[in-house]
Structure formats: structure tokens, C-alpha cells
Please model this.
Amino acid sequence: MTAIRLSICIATLNRAAFIGGTLDSIISQANDEVEIVVVDGASTDNTEEVVCQYRERFARLNYVRLPAKGGVDRDYDRTVGYAQGEYCWLMSDDDILKPGAIEAVLEAARAGYALIVVNAEVRKADLSALTVPGLLPTLSDRVYTPAEFERFFTDTGTYLSFIGCVVIRRAIWLSREREDFFGTEFIHIGVIFQSPLPGEVLVIARPWIAIRSGNASWSSRYFEIWMFKWPNLIWSLPGFPEAAKRQVCPREPWRMRKVLLISRAKGAFSLAQYHKLLEARLAPGPERLMARTIAALPGCLVNPPVFAYFSLFRREERYGLSEFRDSPFYPTNCLRRLVRRAAAVFRPGLRST
Model:
């Protein structure tokens, strides 16, 4: 039998509506060097039924259903534990591999890199339209040596928050500390950056992955994750100077007025998040008043000027623009909501007449 070189590792929970599309995009191009490992964190929808249907099409699909929810970090670690391949591609459970993606990664794996980072494009949640042609702006592949580890961190740290771009040697993953990063939501960041990697890193410029914009399973926890979990993890990493960490993210972004305005415009910050996450952290005074005022601003009034600013002066942050469009406060979304509310108000009156 052909040795398995690449294990595509998926941790999933209640994504029956999307994981079939992901598996279709993988199986349609997989060969004898590829296996799929799916760890299901006790889904309550029909994820199990959907995944098991694909076993008939692809014999090397290993589906493991857990008896209880374990958390995304622990579940991704389990996928690597079950894997048999030389490399593990930590694939998300709703995104799509473009045709040719697996062969491109297998070719890179044959060169023996410690880590392969795959670029991604962003599409609307239904995949109908391209919104960001490539999250990494690089035009050509780039190899980082172990001596360039800090440069690799500053160049790609923000993008690497997307776990689906990570293809790592299984032996390296298993040799590193992992339990310390359970609960961070980004175990792969801890594994990769806890110390220099024992080999070169390849960043593939061509976007072989299509991300569904605004479809993350943790969207309801957006503010908590990006204001606290992400910066806390980045600033806990050893071996990097503060200047390098600052290039990836501010230490306490939730104290910054512009960050709160951006979060409000995206629909991620409200009075509920203020009371739950900020009120107790901010001393009484101007800083707390500023945060509360922003949380209370009408989102439909905040989104247009912030979106206009990014469109005119920060167009390089193209993913940010797509997040503003996905916001419930984007003008067309506000209008649709008003129309639905008006229809709900007038419908009973129309029926009575």
C-alpha cells in the first residue's frame, strides 16, 4: 500500500450544513497518499450522518465521534493523534479546497519543509462571489530559514490565526507542548511559535483555499476572542521582542478607541459585551465612559463612515472590508432588517382587512 504522506485533519461541531462541501472539495482531488481524519466534538445535528456518507466514496476517511464536547484546541490535537500521515493539514470544517490544492501541498511536502503555509482567498458565505483574492499579499512563494523565525512571525502571524492554512510535520506537532494551549482557540499558534522550528518554512503564495466570509463557528464570541484570547496568546509567546509582538497585535486592543469603533461597525461590540467584558476591567473615568458610549452608538450610523474610511485609506486590509459588509449594520443589511420589521408590523393589519 502507498504510504500516507498527507493527513487532512478536521475538527468539527454542528457543521452538517457545510462539512459536506469541504469533504467534496478534498475527495475530488485526493490520491493514495492522502487520508482524512474527522473528529466530531459530539455534534447534536446530523454531522455524523453527513460524514459517514463520504466513507463510501473515500475509504481512507477516519471519523471519530467524541462522547462529549472537548473544545476546538483539544479536538484538533486529537485529529493529529489519530492521523497516520507524515504531514497534517489542519483543515477547517466549512472552507473549500480549490482544484489542484492537494497536489501543490504534496509537492511541497516532498521537499521536506517543517511547515507549509497555504494562502487563502475569501468568498461570500455561499461561495458565490470573491471578496478578497488573497489574504497574504505576497506574489511569490517564500521560504523562511530557522534564522528568520522572527521575520516569519511578524510577516504571517496575523494570517496564521486561520488554522486552515497550516500544514505541519506530524512529528514536530507531537514533539511540542500542546496542553498549555488548550482553551486558547489557537493551539496551532502555540505549537508553531513556542520555539524556532527545526527546519525551513514554505509560504505558498497562490490561494488554494476558499474561506466562507462571516461563517466562523465562533462569530458570536468575536469580541472576546480578538480582544482577549488572541492578544493574550500572542503576548505570552516566549522568544519574541515586544516590537515583534506589537506588529501582530496590540497588547490590550480593547483599550483603543479606534478598535472599539471598528468592532462596533462590524457588529461585534455592544452594550452586552461592554458589561460582560470591559466594565470591570476599566476604572471609572474617561476610558470607561468612552467604551460605554461606543457600545451604545447605533451600529447603522457607525458602519458607513468606518467602511468609507477603510475603503479610501486602508484598502490593503481587504478582509476587514468584507467583515464590514457582513455586518448587520452594513446599510443594505440595515435596510433589509427595517423592511422585515415593517412587514411584520403591517401584516396583521393587512390580514384583518
